Amino acid sequence: MADKKNLEKQIPNNVIALGPTKCTAEDCKQKPAKAGFCNEHFDWFKAGLITKEGARAQDFDKKHYHYMLGKKKSA
User: Fold this and answer.
1) Where are the beta strands (DSSP E) in the chain?
2) In this structure, is the dihedral angle defined by the CA atoms of residues 5, 6, 10 and 11, taken in order, positive or negative?
């Protein structure tokens, strides 16, 4: 009985999550899968559409157009 009370005292109750709880991209609420991004936004990050902070690139429209062309060809 005394061991059980000592064990309960040792377990911390102030646990903090270390990783991100949602995708880093703007306005995305999905759970992160890779590098803080959901699967779709991780592909966007690899293509240069968004920055590592999750903001859109300065030339997002041009890059997104070419990204979609490449995606259409591969499908």
Assistant:
1) none
2) negative
Biggest distance spanned by C-alpha atoms of the chain: 68
More confident residue, 9 or 1: 9
Q: Are 42 and 34 a contacting pair, CB within 8 Å?
A: yes
Label residue 57 exposed, middle or buried (CB < 10 Å: 0-12, 13-18, 19+).
Answer: middle
Q: What is the pTM of this model?
A: 0.69
State the average pLDDT over residues 13-26: 78
Q: What is the overall mean pLDDT for the chain? A: 84
C-alpha to C-alpha distance for 59 and 56, rounded to whole angstroms: 8
